[in-house]
């Protein structure tokens, strides 16, 4: 079975539904790596079981003492290296698009992690971040559907990790660093934002919600929050 259709199968029956524009690309890499590791696991396990039975202790038979096999060692190290380099080259453009350039943003936010909440800062009526009309809300991240969302991710205290499995997005929030993150959600709904880095006593309760809304619902919510915050 080819990787693309296997990836589709895994997506349907195992992974949560992908709701970002880049989720199929992440799922493809996930499936490919899973296939390679599963194949190696089967080969190693079968060999081990065959050897255990075939070369088990028997009366009158002594074990051979093998000091090593340089040719075999060079071979399996090279195969591993080739697989690793091939994977790095194959995934290069996906990671460059997701973690580096990406498309130009349409809506902008600031997300600050802290023990034990996500602080989401929205631009006020002036549409600009970093001005006095900004609105900061805890644990509620509202975004419009089908828009390129960009945000700056940072932390006030320790390392946290912003994780939305449905988006196939996971990014560490590191104190002192402002990391640029983007995504484009393609399906309206509510999705959990757990913290994916053990960050202290309240880690398990550090849990926000991503609300992907229609443009009209989003604007209505933002206006209401702005009015409440004044
Ligand atoms: Cu955390």
Number of strands: 10
Distance between the ends: 58 Å
* Low-pLDDT residue intervals, each spanning 5 or more residues: none
| The CATH class of the largest domain | Mainly Beta
- The helix-strand sequence is HHHEEEEEEEEEEH
Query: What would the CATH topology of the largest domain be?
Result: Immunoglobulin-like
Note the beta-strand portion: 25-35%
Describe the sheet with the most strands. Answer: 5 strands, mixed
**Average pLDDT taken over every residue:** 92
Would you identify the CATH H-level superfamily of the largest domain?
A: Cupredoxins -  blue copper proteins
Specify the structural class.
alpha+beta
Shape: elongated
Task: Describe the structure in your own words.
The chain has 230 residues and is an alpha+beta fold. The chain has two domains: 3-100, Helix Hairpins; 107-229, Cupredoxins -  blue copper proteins (Immunoglobulin-like), CATH 2.60.40. The chain has four helices and ten strands; from the N terminus they run H-H-H-E-E-E-E-E-E-E-E-E-E-H. Strands 3-2-1-5-8 form a five-stranded mixed beta sheet. Strands 4-10-9 form a three-stranded mixed beta sheet. A two-stranded antiparallel sheet has the order 6-7. A hairpin with a 2-residue loop joins strand 1 and strand 2 (117-122). Helix 1 crosses helix 2 (23-54). The radius of gyration is 24 Å and the shape is elongated. The protein starts with a helix and ends with a helix. The mean pLDDT is 92. Copper (II) ion is lined by residues 113, 160, 195, 197, 199, 203, 206.
């Amino acid at each position: 079975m080819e990787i693309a259709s296997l990836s589709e199968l895994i997506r349907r029956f195992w992974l949560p539904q992908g709701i970002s524009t880049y989720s199929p690309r992440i799922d493809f890499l996930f499936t490919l790596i899973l296939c390679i590791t599963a194949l190696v696991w089967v080969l190693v396990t079968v060999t081990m079981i065959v050897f255990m039975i075939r070369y088990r202790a028997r009366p009158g038979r002594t074990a051979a003492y093998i000091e090593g096999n340089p040719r075999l060692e060079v071979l399996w190290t090279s195969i591993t290296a080739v697989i690793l380099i091939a994977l790095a080259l194959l995934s290069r453009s996906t990671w460059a698009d997701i973690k580096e350039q990406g498309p130009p943003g349409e809506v902008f936010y600031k997300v600050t992690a802290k023990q034990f909440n996500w602080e989401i800062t929205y631009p006020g009526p002036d549409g600009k971040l970093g001005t006095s009309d900004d609105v900061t809300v805890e644990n509620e991240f509202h975004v419009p559907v089908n828009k390129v969302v960009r945000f700056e991710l940072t932390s006030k205290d320790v390392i946290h990790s912003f994780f939305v499995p449905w988006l196939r997005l996971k990014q560490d929030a590191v104190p002192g660093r402002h990391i640029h993150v983007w995504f484009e959600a393609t399906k309206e709904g509510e999705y959990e934002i757990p913290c994916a880095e053990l960050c202290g006593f309240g880690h398990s309760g550090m849990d926000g919600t991503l609300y992907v809304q229609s443009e009209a619902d989003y604007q209505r919510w933002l206006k209401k929050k702005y009015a409440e915050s004044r």
